[in-house]
Structures are given as C-alpha cells and as structure tokens.
Amino acid sequence: MNATPESQTSSQNYRQEELDRFGALAQRWWDPQGPQKALHAFNPVRLDYVRQRMAISARPILDVGCGGGLLSEALAKEGAMVTGIDLSPELIKVARLHMLESEQEINYQVQSVEALASERPGEFAAVTCLEMLEHVPDPASIIAACARLLRPGGWLFLSTLNRTPAAFALAVVGAEYIARVLPKGTHQYRDFIKPSELARWVRAAGLTMEDVSGVAYDPLCNKARLSRRTAVNYLACASKSENA
C-alpha cells in the first residue's frame, strides 16, 4: 500500500507506519514461536469467549483487522461463514495462502470496516475486532461501523489494552523489551483504551455492553487465560437489540 500523507490518516482511520510494521511481520504470522507468538497464545481464549456467548456454526461472522487469519480460521473451523478484512495487503495475502493449506473457506478482503459498513449493513450475526482498536486514530469510528454491520440481535466482540501503569509495565516494557515476545514498537501507551471509554463508544453506537473480562498473559510461559482483572488486557462483548 502506498504511503498516506499524515494529514489523511485521521479521515482514513489508519496509520501507515502501523500497516508497514505489521505487514513486515506477515511471512511469520503463523509461526507460533515467531513475532506473533503472543497472539497465538491469545487465540484459543478469544475463540472460547465468542463460543460461550453465541452459536458459531453456519453464522455469518466478520473479523475486522483479521491480520494473517488466526481468528478467522479458528471461527471457520467451528463452522462459521467468515469474512476477514484488513488494510494490509501483505497480511491478506498470507491469510489467503494459509487458508488454502488449511482447506477452509474464508472471504478475505483488503477493505476498511467503514467502507464495508456502507456496502453490507446489517449482514453479520457477529463482528470481532480484537487487538486492533489500539492501532487506529479513531477507535469510536471502528465501533460505530461494526455496529452498523450487525443484524438485530447480533454480537460485537472487542479486545484491547487498558491504559494503566500495569499495562505499560507488562504489555510494553515486559512483553516488548524484557521477554521480547512482541516486536519493539508494537504498542504505544497513549493509544491504550480504558473500559469506560470503550463502553461509552459502544453505547454511542447503539449497542449494549454485556461483559468485560480480563485476560491474564504470562509472557515467560506464553500462556493466556480469562481473568477477573482488567488492568492490562481485556475482552468485551456488546449486543444489538432485536428491535434495532
């Protein structure tokens, strides 16, 4: 993707340096010991969080910021009809190649969620947007677009990092500089999101926040699990009214 002038980043709702950084990791996205090893550890927890709240099989699900397809493939293996979107052509290429190896059927597209919301409103039973909101200039716009894409009674699943000293110590200093399970520069503390901020954007999008759960991650063992503590990583889900 061509470089985008800084003046356009807010209207386009992405930062080119973020796309470049993640695009450079594309070839090792599926390596469980590679730069995205933490994401591999999180993936079973994320899938189970969705599975506990809705029937996945034969349901249309959109994975926003799908990257190389870790969650998209996991959902497809559960029987979902998955669409995965990302703005990185390099990551979509890797996702499509791995899909062929795994013999799954997933509709991968290089597209923004805002553009897709204009084309396919009310089409999806669920939308997932995980480990993505802290990487864009306007997270509220992403959530609003996700809400438009949901059918009445649909579910929105979100995850991000809390803006706390604990998150800075563990997710930035610990994970990027000490344990080195994430590439340096993966996260910027200023872009972390408090649950209260997330809840406000969810309500503004016309959805009801149903749950916020913490995710505990041990970078030394590279293992993740659900937790009551939301001070670092957390998952959230919201619902769209049946009468929407």
How many distinct helices?
A: 9
Sketch the topology as an H/E string, one letter per element.
HHHEHEHEHEHEHHEEE
Shape: globular
Briefly note the structural class of the backbone: alpha/beta
Q: End-to-end distance, in Å?
A: 37 Å
Specify the helix fraction band: 25-40%
Unreliable runs: 1-10
Mean pLDDT: 91
- How much of the residues is beta strand, in percent? 15-25%
Q: What about the largest sheet?
A: 8 strands, mixed
Count of individual beta strands: 8
Spatial strand sequence of the major β-sheet: 3-2-1-4-5-8-6-7
Radius of gyration: 17 Å
Keywords:
24% strand, eight-stranded mixed β-sheet, alpha/beta, single chain, 244 residues, disordered N terminus, globular
Characterization of the model:
This protein is an alpha/beta fold. The chain is 37% helix and 24% strand. The chain has 9 helices and 8 strands. It has helices at residues 9-12, 16-23, 37-51, 70-77, 89-102, 113-119, 139-149, 165-178, 195-204, and strands at 60-64, 81-86, 106-110, 124-130, 150-161, 208-218, 223-227, 233-239. The longest helix has 15 residues, at 37-51. It is globular and about 50 Å long. The protein starts with 8 loop residues before the first helix and ends in a 5-residue tail after the last strand. The model is unreliable at 1-10 (pLDDT under 50).
